[in-house]
Sequence to fold (118 residues):
Amino acid sequence: MDSTSDLHLLRDKLRVFAQAREWDQFHSPKNLSMALMVETAELMEHFQWMTEAQSSDLAAVQKDAVADELADVLLYLVRLSDKLEVDLCAAALQKIDKNAVKYPADQVRGSAKKYGEY
Fold:
């Protein structure tokens, strides 16, 4: 299965899940974008106060909790893109192409500077 069909599978399962619960009425782009940010904050909370090294070496329990938050972020993102009729995979591939122009490898290699600073 490729990434596009994986995203379509998630999208379709989320549609069925929300419809079975009559949640479409709550799934406006505004509400979904807010829920996405809440889940992102919950993900960040797991790393709060950790050192760089600690954040790269999570215990199994921590990693499971982070995996749940990552899944929540992904699911809200897929649901939001569905509601806005955005092909998430195509949009991501286009964004990589745009970033390749913004951040030419030969000019930014090894640098964390934002475009325009180099």
